């Protein structure tokens, strides 16, 4: 057991020591490459892909109406992004680039529902935004 070389590391088991640890790790994992080019950078505004089941209606949007900002791009395999909503609240989890769509801040917001109305003034709920944004 102490005389033959391990093919992966090139060392005999008895020769593997703490001092050679980094060298062996580098040799074993040197073939792993980070896939793809970074599509997004910190500060980009994105939408998240919606999960649809098999019988979901095809005419409904595939992307969220709410916008998110990228706070970090993690160099993993594949590359992932950390997000926060437009109020600065972090979103739990990391997202793959395929789940995100780069967008710009819209100048027009859609009204989901009129909550109150009095004369010329109305109080509305905006489509895709939670009730904190009602105005």
Automatic annotation (TrEMBL):
Domain of life of the source: Eukaryota
InterPro entries: Chromo/chromo_shadow_dom
Domain Chromo: 109-135
Name of protein: Chromo domain-containing protein
Gene source species: Exocentrus adspersus
């Amino acid at each position: 057991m102490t005389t033959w070389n391990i093919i992966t590391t090139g060392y005999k088991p008895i020769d593997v020591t703490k001092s050679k640890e980094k060298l062996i790790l580098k040799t074993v994992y040197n073939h792993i490459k980070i896939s793809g080019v970074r599509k997004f950078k910190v500060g980009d505004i994105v939408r998240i892909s919606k999960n649809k089941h098999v019988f979901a209606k095809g005419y409904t949007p595939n992307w969220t109406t709410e916008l998110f900002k990228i706070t970090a791009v993690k160099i993993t395999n594949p590359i992932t992004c950390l997000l926060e909503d437009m109020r600065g609240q972090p979103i739990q989890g990391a997202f793959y680039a395929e789940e995100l769509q780069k967008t710009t801040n819209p100048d027009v917001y859609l009204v989901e529902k009129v909550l109150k109305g009095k004369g010329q003034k109305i109080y509305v709920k905006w489509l895709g935004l939670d009730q904190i944004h009602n105005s």
